[in-house]
């Protein structure tokens, strides 16, 4: 199987549509981490993503009869644009079924490349099901985004180029993982020719379907999938990719939202390219690999797999970057409610820069302040700040890794009700479409009172919403049942320390 796949990669027809992308040196990162770091620039493809390779190669295998009937795909991302361009170059009709929550910028990009867009459903599964209905009705050929050997072969040409461009010693290649098509193709080619080179997959920690499959020894379906890195938001690794690469890859690393945002900034500073979060995923994994393994003097390659991001999402990415670089600590500190307390607190902090401060009078005895403090990367300096404050007699809660604090509380800190009452607090991901809020409200019992609501648009397919509710005692045991029926992702936050200190 391996030899046959490598042969397909060598024969892949990609350069009629795709280009051979360069590998950009990353001198700042290389000096900072004491390794030679290179970035494979798939963001420079005509569709700003590697997906054109697999889409075109799969279409190149179609019969004349299949081309005459047209092709179809269900996609909300880069595969849609890659297939649209491939079809236009071949003069083939293309239909792309996209969820209604797909950002308008991506819908317009697909239409601009000549494909017909059908908006259906609020999630990918509904769009995929409708695509199958259209296949039955019109006889279209389905072009999968990753679970196909010809798609894998097209993506594998990325690995072929890396080995050709880096003929000198190469220690590891870091590959972003969604459905697995890219890493399967790269692993097949690299391990066949140069088995000593490590191939390391990198996944978002809230969509780590490959890691879960390797741990179980078989493909599994994740119960929930995070959408921040929407380009790799896949619930199950592809069957064909997993069969090919499960014994070839060396390691899988997972990274969080902040680490991806920091990697977006790193890529921009090195190349002036604005990567999408999934495009920066492999660099985030590369940095984590160095930090955990202590690698030094090695040659490491990561892949900027795409640059199709919404401009209005950059504000959120920039906001989380300092946390991802571990240059900011987010702390809840209790100080006495009396004149001069804040001045004394700042004196204790010393010459460190305070990056954020939120406070509102709530209690005559003590005050809870929400504060951001600039620290050095690595975590040790953050702990030193906490230790210093505690030694000075302050009660400190570290909120640096608290999602509720970073998404909502930092924008709401200090808002408290005038009277005490029972409140249940949940954090949701709402699809970014008209009617999503009404759907939520319609499913709530009429005697539940909403006591807190905070929403921020991050330019993604899903919005983050914080909701507080006054729930009658008789309904408390049924709350999660109501939310399960709505179908939105949610987390209970009633006991979250960030909520307890600043909002309760």
UniProtKB/TrEMBL annotation:
Pathway note: Amino-acid biosynthesis; L-isoleucine biosynthesis; 2-oxobutanoate from L-threonine: step 1/1
Pfam family, one: Thr_dehydrat_C
ACT-like domain mapped to chain residues: 329-401, 424-495
Catalytic activity: L-threonine = 2-oxobutanoate + NH4(+)
Gene Ontology BP term (one): isoleucine biosynthetic process
GO molecular function, one term: threonine deaminase activity
UniProt keyword list: Amino-acid biosynthesis, Branched-chain amino acid biosynthesis, Isoleucine biosynthesis, Lyase, Pyridoxal phosphate, Repeat
Major enzyme class: lyase
Listed EC numbers: 4.3.1.19
Cofactor: pyridoxal 5'-phosphate
Gene3D superfamilies from the UniProt entry: 3.40.50.1100, Biosynthetic Threonine Deaminase, Domain 3
PROSITE patterns found in the cross-reference section: ACT_LIKE, DEHYDRATASE_SER_THR
PANTHER family, per database record: THREONINE DEHYDRATASE, MITOCHONDRIAL (PTHR48078:SF11), THREONINE DEHYDRATASE, MITOCHONDRIAL-RELATED (PTHR48078)
Functional note: Catalyzes the anaerobic formation of alpha-ketobutyrate and ammonia from threonine in a two-step reaction. The first step involved a dehydration of threonine and a production of enamine intermediates (aminocrotonate), which tautomerizes to its imine form (iminobutyrate). Both intermediates are unstable and short-lived. The second step is the nonenzymatic hydrolysis of the enamine/imine intermediates to form 2-ketobutyrate and free ammonia. In the low water environment of the cell, the second step is accelerated by RidA.
Summary of subunit composition and partner proteins: Homotetramer.
Family the entry assigns: Belongs to the serine/threonine dehydratase family.
Name of the molecule in the record: L-threonine dehydratase
Organism per entry: Halomonas halmophila
Organism taxonomic ancestry: Bacteria, Pseudomonadati, Pseudomonadota, Gammaproteobacteria, Oceanospirillales
């Amino acid at each position: 199987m391996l030899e046959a796949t490598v042969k397909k990669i060598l024969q892949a027809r990609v350069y009629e549509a795709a280009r051979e992308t360069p590998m950009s040196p990353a001198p700042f990162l290389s000096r900072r981490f004491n390794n030679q770091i290179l970035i494979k620039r798939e963001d420079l493809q005509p569709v700003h993503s590697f997906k054109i390779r697999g889409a075109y190669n799969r279409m190149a295998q179609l019969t004349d009869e299949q081309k005459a009937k047209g092709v179809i795909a269900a996609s909300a991302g880069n595969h849609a644009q890659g297939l649209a361009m491939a079809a236009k170059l071949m003069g083939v009709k293309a239909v792309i079924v996209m969820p209604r929550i797909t950002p308008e910028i991506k819908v317009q990009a697909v239409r601009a490349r000549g494909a017909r867009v059908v908006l259906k459903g609020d999630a990918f599964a509904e769009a995929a099901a409708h695509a199958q209905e259209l296949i039955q009705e019109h006889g279209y050929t389905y072009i999968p985004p990753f679970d196909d050997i010809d798609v894998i072969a097209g993506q594998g040409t990325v690995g072929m180029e890396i080995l050709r461009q880096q003929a000198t010693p190469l220690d590891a290649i870091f590959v972003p993982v969604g459905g697995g098509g890219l890493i399967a193709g790269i692993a097949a080619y690299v391990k066949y020719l140069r088995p000593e080179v490590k191939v390391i997959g990198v996944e978002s920690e809230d969509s780590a379907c490959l890691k879960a499959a390797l741990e179980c020894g078989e493909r599994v379906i994740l119960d929930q999938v995070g959408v921040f890195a929407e380009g790799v938001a896949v619930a199950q690794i592809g069957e064909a990719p997993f069969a090919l690469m499960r014994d070839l890859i060396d390691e899988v690393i997972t990274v969080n939202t902040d680490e991806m945002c920091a990697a977006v900034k790193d890529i921009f500073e090195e190349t002036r390219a604005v990567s999408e979060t999934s495009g920066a995923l492999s660099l985030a994994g590369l940095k984590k690999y160095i930090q955990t393994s202590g690698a030094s003097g090695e040659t490491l390659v990561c892949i900027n797999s795409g640059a199709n991001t919404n401009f209005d999402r950059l504000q959120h990415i920039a906001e989380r970057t300092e946390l991802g670089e571990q240059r900011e600590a987010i702390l809840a500190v209790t100080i006495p409610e009396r004149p001069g307390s804040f001045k004394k607190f700042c004196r204790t902090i010393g010459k460190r820069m305070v990056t954020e401060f939120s406070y509102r009078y709530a209690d005559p005895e003590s005050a809870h302040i929400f504060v951001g403090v600039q620290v050095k990367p690595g975590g040790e300096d953050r702990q030193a700040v906490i230790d210093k404050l505690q030694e000075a007699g302050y009660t400190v809660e570290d909120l640096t890794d608290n999602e509720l604090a970073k998404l909502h509380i930092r924008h709401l800190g200090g808002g408290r009700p005038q009277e005490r009452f029972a409140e249940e607090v949940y954090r949701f991901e709402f699809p970014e479409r008209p009617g999503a809020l009404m759907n939520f409200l319609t499913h709530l019992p009429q005697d539940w009172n909403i006591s807190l609501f905070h929403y921020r648009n991050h330019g993604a397919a899903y919005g983050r919403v914080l909701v507080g509710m006054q729930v009658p005692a008789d309904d408390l045991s049924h709350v999660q049942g109501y939310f399960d029926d709505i179908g939105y992702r949610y987390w209970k936050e009633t006991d979250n320390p960030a909520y307890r200190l600043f909002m309760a």
